[in-house]
Amino acid sequence: MLKPVFLHRFFYDCYKMKKVLIVSYVFPPMAAVGGFRVVKACKFLPLYDWQPVVLTVQGGFNYAYDEESLKQLDSSLPIYRSKYFSPIQWWDSKTQPTENSSGATSAKQSSTQIQTDNSLSAKIKKYIKTIISIPDIHNFWIPFAVLKGLQAIKNEKVDIILSTSPPASVHIIGTILSYLTGKPFVMDYRDLWTQNESYHNRNLPWEYKKVDRFYEKRAIKRASAIVSATTGFSNALFDNNRYKKQEQFRAITNGVDADDFSDIQFPTTKNEKFTILHLGSLYGNRNPNFFFEVLHEWVTQNKEVKDNIKVLFIGNTPGYEKSLIGTVLEPIVQFEKHIPQKQILPKLWASDLLLLILGFDPGGKNVMPAKLYEYICTKRPILGFLPEGMAADAIKKYNRGLAVTSEDKDKTILFLNEQFQIWKNQSGERVSQFDLPPEYDRKEQNKKLADILNNVLSINKND
């Protein structure tokens, strides 16, 4: 008679999980917000009989790093890190102005940079950047990643390849690996590629846009399923790629892992000052200029507000702190670089108002920033500057605050006054709670991903 330990080993050897190679540039210790989608897939897919294998970079460039984020992952997770080289990022890192200990660039350095940007050498550099950055500045990673990916597929006996962007280069890597190995291929868009809301900001000549679109079409044609972070993205992708079946375009939103909030210390006392918090990066249309205009008008009209308000931006906010020097907002608005997620999350409940800035460009109507899911779970009021669309609808659906969809100062100041009065009238212990809508649960979202992978594998086996 077999002993239990041998029975256990027998069934373990007979039962083997299906394996998916996840190709992602962003991955711990990089602290980019897009990396959380990958990390949570690595955590939850094994619950649904899928073993992730990660293909990422060794090194790479990012504005923030967090070694602690690696501790969320199972130590047995196979991670293949390939060599990486990006001449553009390397050059930028050598030519950017140095920062002082507070993270601010000196006025002299800033002035020099502006002059350099208008010089002939800067124009030549910009042109060279353009011609060698299709689809993006990470494309020199492609050959290194393909070689390492072939090794991973062979060693781990991978069943499916999944690439998750941005950057779009990962989809070229996934496409090549699929062609070379015959493995089925799934694309995951955290943000769109040539249909991205900020794509026009690249100012690409038409011939380069054509090449970029060619790369995207080849990847989509190869893919058995195209997953994206919102239903709006999926609909837009299908409308632009009608040579595929609509059922091949699926949406799996970002969301929240309840485990991340398990040991949050909720605040119990009233803030000394009315506190507004913005998490995340500011770039492109996502700039705080309109908010600063409103804030300036509000505090100059009301001395009580001016003396009792604090605004905190945490994340990558390139140069915006310099725009407030010498203004009434300088002592009110504070900027902090990236801090680890475990330190950030308590600050959500420690705030009186959560700020969301997407800009008013209608091209962003399908965007649902990852931080909005966390904002909603806090039940703290949200002030969003964003276009009519999915993010505005979510704020309204869960009655979480105000979605300002145009430059309406009066409406914004009225809401700010209301929230300020609520803070002013607070007494007793603060009420804090965690409320996760089921549709935003990372565990359930990865069950959907596992179902898609199962379906793709089944179809490809039958072909």
Description:
The radius of gyration is 24 Å and the shape is globular. α6 packs across α7 and α7 crosses α8. The protein has 16 helices and 13 strands. The chain folds into two domains: 214 residues, 3-Layer(aba) Sandwich (Rossmann fold); 166 residues, Rossmann fold (3-Layer(aba) Sandwich). The strands form two sheets. Strands 3-2-1-4-5-6-7 form a seven-stranded parallel sheet, with helices on both faces. The protein is α/β, with parallel strands linked by helices and 463 residues long.
- Overall CATH architecture of the largest domain: 3-Layer(aba) Sandwich
The count of domains is: 2
User: Unreliable stretches, pLDDT < 50, 5 or more residues?
Assistant: 1-14, 97-116
CATH class of the largest domain equals: Alpha Beta
Mean pLDDT across every amino acid position:
86
Secondary-structure element series: HEHEEHHHHEHEHEHEEHHEEHEHEHEHH
CATH fold-level assignment of the largest domain: Rossmann fold
Order of strands across the widest beta sheet? 3-2-1-4-5-6-7
Quaternary organisation of the protein chains: single chain
User: Separation of termini?
Assistant: 43 Å
Strand content: 5-15%
